[in-house]
Amino acid sequence: MPLESRLWGKAAGLGEDARGADHTHPLICHLLDTAAVAEVVWDELLTVHQRSTVAEALQVSDDQARTLAAFWAGLHDIGKISVPFQLHRNGPKHGGKLLIQPLSGEPGYAFGAGAVQDRQSHEAAAHWWLVGIFKEIGYPSSRRRPQSQLSHAVAQLLGGHGGRFHPVVYDKDSRCPAARHPGMGAGSWEEQRRLHFDEVRRVVGVRSVPQGRMTPGAAVVLTGLVTLSDWLASIEEEIRTRLRDEAWAGTPDDLNSYWQIARSAAPRLLQRTDLLGTGFARPPEPPESAGKPGLGASMARQVPDLVAEHGPGMVVVTAPPSEERTEAALRAAAVLGHAAGARGLFYALPTGSAADSHMAQVHAFAEQALTGPWRSLLLHSSSRLKPAEAAEQWAHANAAGGVSPEPGEEWAPTANSWLNSHHRALLAALGTGTVDELLQAVMPVKFNVMRLFALSGKVVVVDEAHARGAWGHELMLRFLEWAAALRIPVVLAATAADKSVDAMLAAYRHGAEGDREPVTQPRRSPGWSFVDAQSGGVHLPQQPADAARASTLSIEVVDGTPYGAIQAALAPIVAAGNGRAAAYRGTPAEAIRTFRQLTKDFPGLNVTLIHEQMRNKDRWQRLAACRGAFAPNGGGSGPSVLVTTSMLEHVRGLHFDLVLSGPAPIAALLARAVQSVGDRSRLVVLRADNASELDDAALVRRTDLLLGTGRTVALPEELPLVLDEVYADEFADRLEGPAARELQQLDNQRTVREHKASGTARWLAVPGPRELDGDLGLLSRDHTGMEPELLSSVLGEDVVQVVCLYEHGQPGNRVYLLEDGVPERRLERGPKGRPVPGQLVPYLIPIPKRLVEGVEGDANNAWRGMAALKNVLRLNLKKSEDGRWVYTGSKHRFCMSEHGLMIDELP
To answer: What are phi and psi of 893, to 5 degrees?
Structure first.
C-alpha cells in the first residue's frame, strides 16, 4: 500500500488554489518539516547540558540522541491519521465539501457510525497509538507499569505537544487502541499510520533503539524541543513556500527530495524567533573594590571560585533591598550563566510595577553580560497580552532616561515578532517580569512544561523571593526543586534570613539530590550562601565584614487624621524649599484624593502621582520621570513629594528624605523605608490611616504594638532581629487583657489562612521531579473543582485588564478613541472586524477583579471570541453633564481622568 499524500496536516491560513479549493499541506510533509526543525533546535538552541541530559537518559551518543529527537518530533502529529481529524467539519473544502470526503468511500477507509463522534484529540490519539508501535520495535516496555518504561514515556511526551499530557495508557488499551476509540479507524487508517511512522523513521535516518529511561530532565527538554519545533514548522507563510502540487504522490523518492527542502528551510524558521546566538560573556576580573568590606565585594571575590570548583547552582543573598543588592545578584548571575553556558536570563519580581522599574537596570546588565543578539521582553499581567508591544512602549516611555539611543530598535522585538505571544514570550533571551511566570511552571496549567523548558536554558534571578505569602512560598519551593533537577542556575534575593529562606535553600538542595538535613542561611545581615546543583552541597563562604552603607532608620508613629499628619510632616520640607518625600496611601482612590489636596494646599510643592489604576503608558512614563526627579544625587529643584500606593514598595532607584505610610506589616514598612537616603532615614507611620485590604490584620496589629510611638533601627544589622521579633510565637504572651485576646484571635485567623493556603498550594502544585514515577500525566492532572479562578488566586489577587474607550460621534456614525480628542488613536480593526490586541497594551489598566464583579462591559461578540481579549474588560465611556468621562454599571461608576481610573460603588 503506498503512502496516502491526501491525508492533510495543515490547511488553515494557506489560501486557495486556482479552482477555489483550500490549499493543504500533506501530513507527511508537516511531520518532516517538524523533524528538520528539531535538528536545528538541537544544534543551535539547546545548551550543552540540555543535550547531555537527553543523551545520558537514553543511554545513547549525542549524535544518536539528536537523531532520535528529530524522529520523535516528526511523529508528534501522527494522531491526525484519524477519522475525527481528517473529516472534521472545519477541514479543507472545495465548493463546500470536504476535500478528504472521497477518501472515506474508498476500500479500507470505511468506519463505523461512532468514529466521527469520537472526541479523542489528535494529540491523545498519538499517545495511544505510539505506545504499541514503540513496543513493537524494541523500546523497553512494561505490562504492569507502562509509565516506567521508554515506550510509554516517549508516546506520552509526544501526546503532550498541545500543552497537556494525557493519562497513562495501559497494556490492554495499547494493544488495540481503536477498540476504545473507534475514531482512530482500522484497515487503511492503521496501515497509513504505520507507513507514515516507517517513512519518517527511514528519512530521518534512525538506526538505534534506545534502552534508557525518560528522566524528568530529559522529558522537559524533549517536550520543549518537540513543541517548539511544531510551532516553527506551523508558520503559515513559510508553509506556503513549500506547498506540493496535486500530482505529488509522496513516493520514497518524493520524500527524500522533500526532506532536503525541509532541512534547507529549517534554519530560516529558527532565525525568525530572535532566539539564536545569545550567551554569557566571560565575567571580568573582580574590581579593585572587591577587597573592601561589604556584600558586593564579598560575593565578587568568592562566587567565581565556588562556581569554578563546584559548578553552577543557587546563590542566596539576604540583605535590605537596595541597588547594591541588585547589582550583587546580577554579578552572581553573570558568573553562573557563563559557567552553565546559559542562553539568557529571567529576572522575577513580586509585582508588575517592580518589574517595570527594574527593566532599565536589567537591560544595562545585559549589555555588559550577554553576547550575540538578544531580545528583551516585559512579562507581567499588564504586558502579557502582547509582550513585544509592552517592551516597545516601555522603551519609548523611558527614552529620556537613556535606555537606548533608538528606543525599541535594538533590543525590544517588533510588534510582529514571533516571540510576541503569551506562550512563547518566556523563551526570549532576556525577560523582566513577575514571579508568577515562574510559579505557573509548577502549576497544572497549559504549557507549564514549556515554561520549565524555557527556563532550563537560562539563569533565573528572584528578587524579594519571600514576598508572595503562603501560596507563593509553597509553589516557590516546588519550583526550586525542579530548578535544581534541571540544573537551572538561580539567584535568590531576600530582605532577611528566616525559616522561609532556609526552606528555599533546602528545596534546591533536595532537587539536586542532596540530603534532607536542615540548612540555615547566615542570620547576619548582609549574608549569602551557595548550593551547587551537582551534589546539593551547601557552602557558607566568608561573610561580608560589614554593609557597604550602614544607616539608622528612625520610625515615628503619629496619631491624628492621616491627611493632617501628612501636611504636618511635609510642612518643614516646603518651608525649607527643598527635600523629597514619598507618601504611601492605602488605595488608588486615597492616593488621588491626597494628590489633589496637596496640590491645592501647597502650591510650591512638586507633587507626582503614581498608582496601579493608571494606563500602562502613563504609569511607565511617570516612573521614568521619577527616576530622574528622585535620583540619589539628583532631582529637580524645590520640594517634591511622590504620592503612591503599595505598588511601589519593591521599586529601586527612588530615594527620599522622608517616607510616609499608613499601617502595614513590618516587612512592607521596612521595604518602603529603605528608599530613604542618608545616614538617618525617616519613616512616619500614620496610625489612624486605613490598612490595605490585602494586608494581614494580625501582622499589622503586631507591627503597631511593636513600634509603639516609634523606634530606631540600625540597618542592616538589626533588620533580622526586628523581623524575628514581630513574628515571634511568644509575642502575644507579653500582652494582657483585651489586647492579648484580640491579638490571639487575629493570630488564630492568620494561622488558619496560612495553613489553608499552604495546603491548597501543595495540593495544586505538580509533583516534584522525584515524585513523577515516570508518569508525565501528573504534570497536567486536573483536580475536581479546579477552575481558572483558583489558579489566579494562588498567584495573588485576581486581576482584570480594563480598557476605557472614549465615545465620539452620533449614533450610527459612532467611533471609539483610545485617547480623548485624538482621532488617530481610534480603535483599530483587523481581519473580520476584530480588534487588534497589540494596540491596547499601552492603554490597559489592571484592576482587582473584586472591584469589577458583575460588570459586563461593552465588548461585542468579535471581542469576546478572541482568546487574547477574554480577560480584557471594555468600557465605552460617555461624557457626563459635569464634563467627566464615565461608565455607569449596575453597581459601580467608573470615572476616567488624567489621574487614572476611579471606581465608586453605587448606593
So the answer is: -120, 125
